[in-house]
Write a structure and sequence with these properties.
Blueprint lengths: L3 E3 L5 H13 L2 E3 L14 E2 L1 E3 L3 H22 L10 E5 L4 E5 L10 H5 L2 E6 L2 E2 L7 E4 L2 E4 L7 E5 L6 E5 L4 E3 L2 E4 L1 E8 L1
């Protein structure tokens, strides 16, 4: 099982600016699947932030920059990526175990097409009381062959990107304090 990781993919000052814009923006409960427009707070409790068109272009440029690196790392071609989700997890928010891809015939086409999942962290998971950080909210990726074993625990670091095959089971543990900001997307 292989994971792509890159520290300081986004400059910390840019992450500060993105979080500042997020704090001034409208947010809505994040859906479990966009095809059915379903919000399920027992499965996923987080907020999706709507940012300005200029920020959308800025973030999409980061994904364009990431695309050839992921193709090289995973040795597969990807044709594009979905519309990203800018997420805010507050105290108590989480996303239970799930996979971003499955091949069930009743699954939406976009879910069956996903190949690589990407998370960009915009602030640090650290000790309680540290400014602009959060505790809890760890990204946990489970072993593909034994779903009871953890393959990787990823603590958020400002500007860090992590990518992994979309069929892997993963979760975001509940945030214990502070606010966790991240951007997620899927390459197909």
């Amino acid at each position: 099982m292989t994971f792509f990781s890159l520290n300081n993919f986004i400059d910390p000052q840019v992450c500060d600016q993105l979080r500042a814009e997020a704090n001034q923006s409208v947010s809505v409960p994040a859906q479990v699947t966009k095809a059915k427009g379903r919000v399920d707070i027992d499965m996923r409790r987080t907020r999706r932030i709507n940012v300005s068109p200029r920020t959308v272009r800025q973030i999409e440029a980061y994904f364009q920059e990431l695309k050839p690196q992921l193709e090289t790392y995973y040795n597969i071609p990807v044709s594009g990526f979905e519309k990203f989700q800018f997420l805010l997890y507050r105290e108590g928010d989480f996303y239970k175990r799930h996979a971003d891809k499955n091949d069930k015939v009743d699954s939406p086409t976009y879910i069956r097409a996903r190949r690589i999942s990407v998370v960009i962290f915009l602030n640090d998971e650290s000790q309680p009381g540290q400014l602009d950080s959060y505790t809890g909210g760890t990204l946990v990726i489970w072993n593909q062959r034994d779903s009871q074993k953890i393959a990787l625990r990823v603590k958020g670091e400002t500007g860090k990107v992590i990518a992994f095959p979309s069929e892997l089971i993963h979760e975001v543990e509940p945030v214990q304090s502070g606010e966790r900001y991240s951007i997620v997307n899927w390459f197909f």
